[in-house]
Amino acid sequence: MTPKPPTPPADLSTEMVDTLNSYSPEQLRYVARYAEALAAHKARGGRPDEESTADENDAQSDDLPDEVPSKATITIKEINDNRYYYWQWRDGDKVRSKYKAPVSPDD
């Protein structure tokens, strides 16, 4: 007998539940990391449809290591129950990553 899957929140749309149910465990973990990062961003007052300001872009480019291209973005990876920031960018067909820093508990 297999355990029952978790019950989705009542206010989650049927379409979203069906989509999530079709995902592999790896895809679900990826979505969960994105949702966590998006929630943290919104909690800090950011809006997803807001364009980055020039100051934010300048600060990010000043923070880039030499080997990381300016098109890189910051992602959060969870490794052994610890969360870390990584620079991530596409290089042809490959996605490249470079360690940035641990995620502070305040984030």
TrEMBL record:
Task: Give the Acidic residues compositional bias ranges.
Answer: 51-66
Q: Where is the DUF6788 domain?
A: 65-106
- Pfam families found in the cross-reference section: DUF6788
Q: Where is this region: Disordered?
A: 40-73
The organism's place on the tree of life at top rank: Archaea
Name the UniProt record assigns to this protein: DUF6788 domain-containing protein
Which species?
Answer: Halorubrum rutilum
